[in-house]
């Protein structure tokens, strides 16, 4: 449980708050689609658009039962080849895609990207307004975070408006010393402003929700887990307020 869980449930939190929200699966593994749309491999989507930017956005949109929440699958295109392409090859098409999204009246667009800062992920960041970094609360991954943030700051040369909102700890197990220590190490490594206060716990509810193809907030007993993402949404909105970084 990591970036895709955060992307799905954070997008759902924005949508539940009444904001027209589009969740885009820009990971060639199709993690969002596999979690939420069982027929995702049959749908036109993001990588098809990269191959054919003449494709209308309406052809890719997958509605949900929540009127304000819409999906775009990764699609049938050759995502792995595109994902490994040189940085900058897809920037203009991703920017055109995001302009089309804005023109349809979406207020929030959440992209679930592949890990790393290369290929389509890097190009998506060059076209985006903000980024958050989910990090599992496990010792091995912690030390790479400062380098990742350095890489994000280098990308800001190509996209000066990119706001690095910070790191959110995921899969946190408060009853496990190693997990608590990993979170403590993250907080020591990073400036306070670079760590979200909200932490995403490791919980079987997320597994159950994914197995049923649902955001966790849709489950009958998912209210507590959904509140975690409401809190994260609130922190993001505060960070994006004009003057918040002054």
What labels describe this entry?
246 residues, 4-stranded mixed β-sheet, 11 helices, 14% strand
Describe this structure in words.
The structure is a single chain. This protein has 246 residues and is an alpha/beta fold. It is 43% helix and 14% strand. It contains eleven helices and six strands. It has helices at residues 3-16, 31-36, 46-51, 79-83, 91-103, 119-127, 139-142, 145-155, 177-189, 204-211, 223-240; strands at 21-26, 61-63, 69-72, 108-113, 130-136, 163-170. It has a four-stranded mixed sheet, sandwiched between helices. It has a two-stranded parallel ribbon with strand order 5-6. The chain is globular. The protein starts with a helix and ends in a 6-residue tail after the last helix. The mean pLDDT is 89.
Please summarize what this structure is:
This protein has 246 residues and is of the alpha/beta class. 43% of the residues lie in helices and 14% in strands. The relative contact order is 0.15.
């Amino acid at each position: 449980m990591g970036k895709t869980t955060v992307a799905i449930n954070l997008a759902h939190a924005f949508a539940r708050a009444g904001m027209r929200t589009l969740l885009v699966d820009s990971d060639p593994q199709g993690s969002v689609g596999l979690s939420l749309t069982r027929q995702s491999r049959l749908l036109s989507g993001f990588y098809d658009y990269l191959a054919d930017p003449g494709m209308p956005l309406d052809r890719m949109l997958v509605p949900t039962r929540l009127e304000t929440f819409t999906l775009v699958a990764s699609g049938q295109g050759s995502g792995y080849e595109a994902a490994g392409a040189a940085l900058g090859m897809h920037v203009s098409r991703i920017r055109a895609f995001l302009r089309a999204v804005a023109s349809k009246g979406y207020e929030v667009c959440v992209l679930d990207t592949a890990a790393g800062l290369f290929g389509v992920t890097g190009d998506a960041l060059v076209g985006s307004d903000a980024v958050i970094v989910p990090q599992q609360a496990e010792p091995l991954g912690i030390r790479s975070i400062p380098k990742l943030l350095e890489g994000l700051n280098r990308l800001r040369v190509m996209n000066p408006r990119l706001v690095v909102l910070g790191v959110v700890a995921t899969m946190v197990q408060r009853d496990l010393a190693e997990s608590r220590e990993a979170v403590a190490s993250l907080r020591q490594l990073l400036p306070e402003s670079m760590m979200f206060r909200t932490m995403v716990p490791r919980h079987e509810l997320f597994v159950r929700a994914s197995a049923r193809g649902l955001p966790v907030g849709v489950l009958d007993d998912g209210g507590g887990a959904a509140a975690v993402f409401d809190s994260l949404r609130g922190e993001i909105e505060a960070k994006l307020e004009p003057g918040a970084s002054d």
